[in-house]
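tool=predict chain=A
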Amino acid sequence: MLKQKFFEQNRGQLLQQLVSQRADIAEKMIITLEELEKATNNFDKARELGGGGHGTVYKGILSDLHVVAIKKPKILVQKEIDEFINEVAILSQINHTNVVKLYGCCLETEVPMLVYEFISNGTLYEHLHVEGPSSLPWDKRLHIAIETAKSLAYLHSTALIPIIHRDIKSANILLDDTLTSKVADFGSSRYIPLDKSGLTTMVQGTLGYLDPMYFYTGRLTEKSDVYSFGVMLIELMTRKKPFSYIDSQGDGLVAHFSTLFAAGSLFQILDPQVMNEGGNKIEDIAAIAVACIELRGEERPTMRQVELRLEGIQSHVEHVEALMEESDVNGTMINSPGTIDGISDQEGLSSQYSTEEDCTLSKSYPL
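tool=predict ok
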């Protein structure tokens, strides 16, 4: 009786209705508490993958042998249940290589539980901010940035209903055994209104990555994700933590990076490993990051433009490396080609996991 009460309280009928048109989803979407208890050996502490103020994540194996991560929140505001269930129904239909797959949810507990595919290799944040002088190779960092850009471009412009992630950061980029990136944590995501220039919402995000215009106005657009991506790109280039970095003048990471870029002095802040491995294209990538963090959202590029530009740079680098290998084999000198054509300034590329709970900001705005 209690399970049924929670199921109804958590709008189980609404979810059933939303997924009823897709029988293949409906069969798997609603997962019983009994199934999750079996999958986790009754939520054994040994199965915990991590946790914090908002809840605990467990590793489990479903009866169909899928290895999953089960997010068991501590609390969920009742008025958000309808939105939560609606998002679950939509996200369950997203199928993208670089977005964590959502298998379903359990509604038979007081707070609904989400069930995701299990990603084995931790977060980008954990890989990036290790002790010692070396971290992920630069080519891997660039590849992860491109995959993340692809997933965001997909969410913004290709998904059935466009979605704003709203909390892009290195801690929400999971990596598998081959370092393929998977964008995770859609708990605060929102749909992009098709007939509006933005959406007024309660501000949510993470200090250091949060779009300042969104913070001050409460107006959410896909360009807020672009800003957060730009901050993450700076983090990849510097190995500095956006939520805690302060320079000698009291500026945060974004402001300091922008100042040094304008002065042609990026070497003062770049990760030495990036300077050693990045070649002559680092400044081009820095220019993309600076374009993404423009104060005015309309002056930022789209994620599709960012994706294409980063891919162009990667293709150039790979082409040069191939030529250099060929020259080594043949014993001949081959001049490096000039910069490849990318997206012009006119198209929007003009110049210009945190584990700490208090990094998450929340501020209410009237509708």
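Residues 232 and 307 are 14 Å apart (CA to CA). The longest helix spans residues 303-330.
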